[in-house]
Amino acid sequence: QVHLVESGGGLVQPGGSLRLSCAASGFTDHYAIGWLRQAPGKGREGVACIRSFDGMTYYGDFVKGRFTISRDNAKNTVYLQMNSLKPEDTAVYYCAADTRPPFGSTWPNEYNYWGQGTQVTVSS
Predict the structure, then answer these.
(1) Closest CA to 70 of 90, 84, 49, 85
(2) How far apart are CA 81 and CA 63, in angstroms?
């Protein structure tokens, strides 16, 4: 059974940084891990994803070099480093897994396993 647990959210000032972590387990084949977010009153949108088998990464257009997704295979953990945070980045951030090929989409509907989410608030 796939299990995803996020951590690292919190309150940060505009221009600040946060690193989110996703402990992922239970996989039996190739998969992709994505970070997606949902702001108040809005639908979910993809932030970034990384493929398990080759480390290829994909980003949402709005990221524009501010965020970096990475993985530590020894720890079964995927990270999202977020820099230059803006108030509009305020949202619940979810770690999600896509176990159905093809892999590499940031489209929320592609993901079939979800974590519980972690709140990120960017405010002065």
Answers:
(1) 49
(2) 11
Q: How is residue 49 written in tokens?
A: 């994803």
pLDDT in tens, 41-73: 999 999 999 999 999 999 999 888 999 999 998
* Sole residue written with tokens 């990270």: 79
Nearest to 37 by CA among 112, 118, 124: 118
C-alpha distance from residue 39 to each of 5, 61, 99 (Å): 20, 16, 25
The β-bridge relationship of strands 77-82 and 18-25 is: antiparallel
Q: Give yes or no for a contact between 33 and 71, defined as CB atoms under 8 angstroms apart.
A: yes
DSSP one-letter code for 80: E
